[in-house]
Structure formats: structure tokens, C-alpha cells
Amino acid sequence: MRTIVLLTEDRPGMILDIARVILDQGFTIQSFVAGPCEKGNHARFTFLMKSLREDSSDTNPMIETLKNLYGVERAEDITEQKIVARELAIIKVKAAKEERGRIVDLASIFRADVIDVTPTRLVLALHEIPEEIDRFCALLKTDIEVTKRTGIVAMISGEAPREHQEHPLESVA
Fold this sequence. Notes:
About 25% of the residues lie in helices and about 40% in strands. It is built from 4 helices and 8 strands, in the order E-H-E-E-H-E-E-H-E-E-H-E. Strands 2-3-1-4 form a 4-stranded antiparallel beta sheet, with helices on one face. The longest helix is centred in the N-terminal third of the chain and has 11 residues, at about 15-25. It is elongated.
């Protein structure tokens, strides 16, 4: 799996143009998250993707092509760098009165929040690395009715050297 981050203008058709490049370069998108950022009229994207070719996962040609797309200001493969990443999961579980304590205790251990309560169900929210969400879901497997996950949002760690920072603050307009 490769983690690619982009800074783009927020314009119609941008995601379609990006997806076309990714597919043309032999990759498939496993997840992506996009949203507004600190730079007005811009968006940040985080893509988790894998190569469709068994013999190659080189993202350099794809990154160069993405950089040349109209509206893309920055494109970077951060897979090999020190990153911080999180995913949001919202999970609806069956929770009869006698089971609630067990489920809430487990949620507490994983730092999940109870965000909705009904007489027969709980909805939990967990923002964590994907592997921890997988572990949490495995422990609640028989209780889970619905799981919705956002995909990861990632950035280079604040401890990375300045030349590897995605978008140094002083260059934000």
C-alpha cells in the first residue's frame, strides 16, 4: 500500500482528473479522503492505494503526472516517511441492557466515544489508526450491525525535516 497526499485547487472535476491519472499509472484506490484546508479555495487529499502490477509499486511517474495536472499544487508519496495518520469509524452495535456495560468498557479501553444511545443499540465513534479500528471491530464482531469508515487522513510528522514538510506554514497565502 502507498500513501499519497495532494494539495489542489478546489475545483469541479478535480477528483475525476486525479482518479484517471492513478488508474492510468496502474494503481487502484483503496480509500481517499478529501476536504478543505488552511489555504482558501484549496483541498487536501489523502489516498491509500496499491499497484495493479505485481512487479512494481513505483509511484514516481504517477507523482510527476499528478504535479502536472491543472490545479495540483503539491503531490507526494509519504509512504516511507514518518507520518501521523488517523481514520474515523462510526459503529452501530446491538446493546441489550445487560450487554451495555461490557460494550462501554471495551469502548473506553479503545478511547471510543458513545455518540448515540437507543433502548437496543449504541453508536460508537473511534478515531485511530486502521489497525486499532480493526482490533476493536474484531472484539465486537458479533454485536456490530453497521460500520462506516472514512479512510485514513495522513500527514508527515511534525518532526520531519522542513524540506519534507507538506506545506510549510509561511507559504500559506
